[in-house]
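Colleagues,

Please find the record for the two-part complex below.
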Amino acid sequence: MSRPTVTDQALIESDITAFLDRQREKELLRFITCGSVDDGKSTLIGRLLYDSRQIFEDQMAALEADSKSVGTQGEKIDFALLVDGLSAEREQGITIDVAYRFFATDKRKFIVADTPGHEQYTRNMVTGASTADLAVLLVDARKGVLTQTRRHSYLAHLVGIRRFVLAVNKMDLVDFDRDAFLSIVADYRAFAERLGIEDWQAIPVSGLGGDNIACRSDNTPWYDGPSLIEHLENVPLDAQGEEAKPLRMPVQWVNRPNQDFRGFSGQIASGAVKPGDAVRVVPSGRTSRIERIVTMDGDLDEAVAGQSVTLTFADEIDCSRGDVIAAADAPPEAADQFEATLVWMADEPLLPGRGYWLKLGTQTVTARMQPPKHQVNVNTLDKLASKTLSLNEIGVTEIATDRDLVFEPYHDEAGGPSNRVMGGFILIDKLTNATVAAGMIHFALRRAQNIHPQALDIDRQTRAIQMGQRPAVLWFTGLSGAGKSTIANLVEKKLVARGRHTFLLDGDNVRHGLNKDLGFTDADRIENIRRIGEVAKLMTEAGLIVLTAFISPFRAERQLVRDMLDDGTFIEIFVDTPLDVAERRDVKGLYAKARAGKIKNFTGIDSPYEPPLEPDVQIDTTRLSADQAADAVVDALVRRLED
Amino acid sequence: MAHLTHLQRLEAESIHILRETVAETERPVMLYSIGKDSAVMLHLARKAFHPGPLPFPLLHVDTTWKFRDMYALRDKVGAEDGTELLVYRNPEAEAKGINPFDHGPLHTDMWKTEGLKQALDKYKFDAAFGGARRDEEKSRAKERIFSFRSASHRWDPKQQRPELWSLYNVRRSNGETMRVFPLSNWTELDIWQYIMSEGIEIVPLYTAAKRPTVERDGLILMVDDDRFKLADGEQVVERSVRFRTLGCYPLSGAVESEADTIEKVVQEMLLTATSERQGRIIDRDAGAGSMEKKKQEGYF
């Protein structure tokens, strides 16, 4: 058995040019290691780095010194210290995040995602697995297949990894006992079958002693399979399957340096492309042929999945960031309602109905989730009923987007590699900008596919011109009793006096009709505002200036309405009345009831009000009369819409 | 059909990252340090936006103490068509005459760390490309490709966003900025191979030549100009040396070497096995965790 790196070493000394030529031909395999705390994961990775000579002398000296001072292996070298990076984790003795390591052998280069085994860090494991071709599952030979092993297998499989290594570690501590190994393998087989994991290789190893890591060990004469490195060098790569699929290239950027050149830049997600190929731009459906594949090294005759290129078309057709260039005869679907699996990654739980940014490929849209159909217990794989998803929870939900999304199901029905680019997405909180979830699309919902937007001959511009005004939404927000309705009424009168066409939406005409089925829980408040936003949007399309007077306590919901409308249409007016003033006025006697506990979820008392951070107009009602306030709003509107 | 080699995959990934940043930010900039990693990053950027010009300027945060060969290459690169080069020097450091001989760690802090913050604030850049790699140092292994900094430029290792697939969340609040590392997944060997196969011009100091040197505190330093004051008993000696990393010349340790081509440099690197940052004084300032601390303070 050859130690892979030794031949490299000889070649470096004798013929560096030949060595470098061979390096150039190497392939890349990305894998993830997962295991529970104390399975010896960091030690195993440290060993892989060490055995493939990725550790330099100065690091080795530091390692020997560190092993003595903070190591856990007595006088021996503690390989885990090579891998544990941030000082906080070194002090705690645990890995707390995803770290990426690099090593190479004769045949391949490897990128290892090292992820922690702690229960609360599902998010890190899913992150590390999302770019991996293979997962190495570590099992302690003394403990066997644990709940964590099952969880890690499930998560890796969920993210689309189809190749697994079951590394039964610490074989030295069970005297390299064959039966111990076989019984673990039998345990795992039962589980793998249930999950649908077909391609897996069990290897008995010792990270500490290096057995069956680089080369086969004399301690396990009963084992005739490959060493870990041999296996990693020979396992097939996913990239091979990507090239066999139809062409998909999400457009990242339109390259237009001058009038004579217009190219579409992106990384090919699947398939291959040649000049002359018929292509279709999705979702518009327009077709053309590829004219050139432009790179700085000259035009290419062909480009394949994984390459970043710039394409030009034979015809001048519309195409921009977010569109997907696809094989003309096999385009992907576009839809606005989906079923998907979500992995929740934020401390703040999923709020069904709230708008989040959804980014898939180069498309970013607003998405709203239904309450989960079910949540998955990652330890038992049982489906549980759930109204939301919290940090590290996984569930299946229906998603509606505000416009069509070009996609493919994440998991390939034909058993090919997962459609990571066209089927994987992230959700982003609109206020904090945090990445709150990862998602994988199952399929489009029928009703979404069948509804095609009706192109209207009379558009909003026609109506606006007919009315002689630019539509707008004057959105009054503030505490109960702040004076929103009073001021909005005055504003409407002043606008009508100026010949404007207006409509006022407030509690009286909405809560008692359109929204009478809604209560005052957070979820109902969101739905209330969403409906008002949609109605306001329709009215702006009809050419009207819409005034709304609702508490609308959450920033995210006001942002949701702003995002529904064309830029500059939404004008946020903060009727700023301090709580004590509003409560003192208590026109409707509601504060008294809320204080007495007779009204639940009352804004300002037991439900929060999030004031606008940058309102378009701010009215201090302790300084202005209602009439002065109305004039200020009209002035602001005139300034914005008529200058 | 030929499969992509690891270098082709790395190149395609870096180009994807560069384009994604330009598509989703308003004022990106590329930090150009004149080193070999910067040279590769710049080359990738030209590829990403070919045939158009670079859609962002290059920024060199200068300390006035770089090697003369570095300034020569910088000015050559800056004069190329379709390239806008900005040079920023911290005026306070300049006024106080901060230098590596008299001011120790303060030199790096004022010229580089403070200088970078000032430059980003002055030009209101919202994203800055840097050439750092995950294989350089342990705390870098966990750095994201898109690394977020607060309005005061601080890095919080616990507040970084998860990066799934090739999907990058580039959204920022006012004042927040991003450092973007397109070379995250490259190793030192990848960089050298790419320089060779693409014929990328680098500062000649990376290959060995006879150079005037002084040995000080266990490091071989190059006497690059007459600002280098000799201490008692020190003598300038001609040695055949090269540099593994380039920074301010009084802070960059040379290695004695006869490797006068890049192939030989790579051969030496693979055989002698000393990791890259070893020649840099900065990592040793505070022992383990020093680079991490510097990053939290805003060092690149």
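The longest strand of chain A covers residues 394-407.

Comments are welcome before we finalize the supplementary table.
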